[in-house]
Design brief:
Length: about 425
């Protein structure tokens, strides 16, 4: 690739959506940096604004369009590139926006720099088998390392397999190489991310468990966290391995999506509530104080009042730490969007709020259960009103008066004084 002819060209990134997007934005920014561009804050004046988009809900897409319009109003001479899932799935809704100069989906976004330099709008051939390993490096403490992309499952509500293609990953050896690069960037915590991380290696005869076993052998002072893993892919061996590891944190993220078997079936999920409950029990047996975060969707089209009641009771009695609640919105390209009977929007929101409240209760209970423990907290650089923040191994937030020498350091903290969703130290 040619070196940039104009070293003063400024590029700014804004990332919406998931951790994978953050990881990839960081990588793409690095390609611009390496070619002589200057990366500036999104609030500053830039020549090129890159919006890394999300398609998870219709609201996310609307937010993205609003952002693009206000960008053009504030920076009429700048070029705007929209990349990522939204531009992959609905490029047609962006093509009609005169504000947008470049549209790159998930398979050609790594080529944005060439596109920008050639100033063409024609997209190259998509290669939905391309795997580009990335890690985020903007935040010195934590790096999101992409170990897997795409998904083979086609849950009926989900647009991601259409936006990101089939499951794929590098080999363990190649993944270890990029892990070392992430470590050398100075981070102290690496979060393994992907669309369906548990499927790592399935097309080249390796397993996710083998990957984390190999990562565990890397000599460094930092720690690893797992991101979301499908319940049926969270094996006993993986749970036992995390329980015995000093480097992998006792923090799990399990997508439940629906707490009623009838809705799980309509969603084409590959497990039922009994398997999910059994996975949670296994984690609790091995790691009684582990954080277990759970994704759930409120108001899926087939969810009756009785289904919701069943789901609420199931979640209430299952020993999880908190929920990420998503209000269901139809993605036009998915089979679920064709279901005629839909839950009215006001009811979806009501259910979402009820689950949100349940999540807050669960989080408070989880935090309370940790009172009296002494935990290793990795403090981060951000400060707010003279306080700095960090997370325990099991993802409890701790605040303490700012001390520069504690940034990026792991400190033993007694968890005694709890205030809302943070412990004070
Ligand atoms: S497993 Fe996850 S990414 Fe794959 S289709 Fe289902 S919800 Fe979407």
């Amino acid at each position: 690739m040619e070196q940039n002819n104009n070293p003063h060209t400024k590029v700014a990134f804004h990332t919406l959506g998931c951790k994978l997007n953050f990881s990839e934005s960081s990588y793409i920014a690095k390609t611009f940096l390496e070619h002589g561009y200057e990366i500036v804050d999104f609030k500053d004046t830039a020549d090129l604004y890159v919006v890394h988009s999300c398609t998870v809900t219709a609201i996310a897409e609307k937010k993205c369009r609003n952002l693009i319009r206000s960008l053009k109003t504030n920076h009429p001479d700048a070029k705007i590139a929209v990349i990522g899932c939204y531009s992959e799935i609905h490029p047609e809704t962006l093509e009609v926006m005169p504000e947008v100069d470049f549209i790159c989906g998930n398979f050609d976004k790594y080529d944005l720099i060439n596109r920008y330099e050639k100033a063409i709008r024609q997209q190259p051939e998509n290669d939905k088998t391309l795997f580009v390993p990335t890690f985020s490096s903007g935040d010195r403490t934590r790096s999101f390392l992409k170990v897997q992309d795409g998904c083979d499952y086609f849950c009926t509500y989900c647009a991601v397999p259409y936006a990101r293609g089939r499951s794929r990953s590098n080999t363990i050896a190649e993944t270890l190489k990029i892990t070392r690069e992430a470590i050398n960037s100075g981070c102290r915590e690496i979060v393994l991310t992907g669309v369906n991380v548990g499927d790592f290696g399935k097309h080249h005869g390796e397993t996710f468990l083998q990957l984390i076993q190999a990562m565990d052998q890397i000599e460094w002072e930092g720690r690893f966290r797992l991101s979301s893993i499908e319940p049926e892919l969270m094996s006993d061996e993986t749970i036992d391995f995390v329980a015995d590891s000093n480097r992998f944190m006792p923090h799990f993220h399990l997508p439940l999506q629906a707490g009623s078997d009838a809705v799980l079936e309509a969603m084409h999920r590959r497990y039922r509530t009994d398997l999910f409950a059994e996975r949670v029990e296994r984690i609790r047996q091995k790691l009684p104080l582990a954080c277990i975060a759970v994704d759930v969707i409120a108001g899926f089209s087939t969810e009756t009042d009785a289904d919701f009641e069943t789901a609420y009771r199931f979640i209430e009695k299952t020993d999880i730490s908190y929920l990420h609640v998503f209000t269901y919105s139809e993605r036009p390209e998915t089979p679920a969007a064709k279901i005629a009977n839909r839950v009215p929007v006001h009811l979806r929101r009501e259910r979402s709020q009820q689950l949100q409240q349940l999540s807050e209760q669960k989080k408070t209970d989880f935090y309370r259960r940790n009172i009296g423990q002494t935990e290793q907290v990795l403090f981060e650089a951000d400060q707010h009103k003279g306080m700095m923040f960090g997370f325990t191994r099991n993802y409890i937030r701790v605040a303490t008066p700012y001390r520069k020498e504690w940034v990026n350091k792991t400190i033993d903290v007694p968890l005694e004084k709890m205030e809302d969703d943070v412990f004070l130290f």
